[in-house]
Amino acid sequence: MRIDWKSCFKIGISIFVLYLAIHYWDSAAGLGKALLAAASPIVFGCVFAYLVNILMRVYERWYFPKTQSAVLRKSRRPVCLIAAFLTIVLVMALIVLPQLASCAAIVANALPDAMDEVVSYLDASELITEDTMAELSAIDWEARLQQIGEQFAFGVGSVVSAVGSAATTLIGAVTTLVIGIFFSIYLLVDKERVGKQFQRLFRRYLPTPVYDKTAHVLGVMNETMRNFIVGQCTDALILGVLCSIGMWLLGLPYATVVGPLIAFTALIPVIGPLLGGCIGAFLILLESPKQALIFIIFLLALQLVEENIIYPRVVGNSVGLPGIWVLAVVIVGGAMFGVLGMLLGVPLAAAVYKLVREDVKKGESEQDAMAK
Questions:
Q1: pLDDT digits (tens, 9 = 90+) for 177-204
Q2: Rounded to an integer, what distance in angstroms lies between the CA atom of residue 274 and that of residue 279?
Q3: How many C-alpha atoms does 256 have within 13 Å on its Cβ side?
Q4: CA 143 and chain centroid, separation
Q5: Considering the entire predicted model, what is its pTM?
Q6: Residue 283: CB partners within 8 Å, gap ≥ 6?
């Protein structure tokens, strides 16, 4: 094999960089963290722009797609961008945040009475001693919960006032959020030109085979991620609506609260509906144990219908990841990266699964061709 001076120079530079990275690992890690922290608004802006773009493309397909008017064509991008942002803001302001507040209020109002009923049941069943029963009966649960809330609020307030870094962290988070949103707006307004710039850059500095393979991998990941997000949101919406309607028909309480809660938690694959069902069952249990049991049976039946009929038709085979791998990815991703790992692990694993399957089929075809 012929070795020229350019190859030796590249090898020498690579060895030198590797030596620096190993010898000065702590400094390199600190520099990497600093660069990542500095780029966090850009990273957030890119992720946010990707999510908003999915909704904006839907509006662009609806907004006079075949019009000949130049005014309407020029207004398509700003109108659809504003509509996408308004949709997200309205969903958060009118559905997500109010439902979370309603859940907290329901628990705060119903929990004292529920604790009193538990104490009465323990007294009637004689499961605990008389001294312990007397101590439990003497507790004012409503006052105790109010006291806990006041202590928590006081503690949080004192910590925030005492530690100046908390205010700095809050300001930094708000700054990152604002800068990221403005950066996402720039990307969405001029996304075609930005995409062409990156395409030209990669074509110039990457060999053609590497560029083609990279473009294919990114295309598969983008398609899988988009299909997963759209399908998951649609499936969650259908599940939440059916849950609210079914609870209303069965006469169960908190139908307008539990339904959106089920829809929100259903965005987490596999274990999301289970998590939402546990919270909903707890809320209804505070009202009536019998109705909580009815709700659990109803939710199990609804989940069975959703997994076997709704989900396959809504999401279909667009993700293409077998169920056993979905469960494994959710468990591992959740253990390593929390909720974010659950949300992103499935589409990323599906993309890898699809690429590996393509490569395996390609290798098998080549082997069959050589055998013939």
A1: 888 889 899 889 888 888 899 889 888 8
A2: 9
A3: 5
A4: 37
A5: 0.70
A6: 103, 106, 107, 110, 254, 257, 258
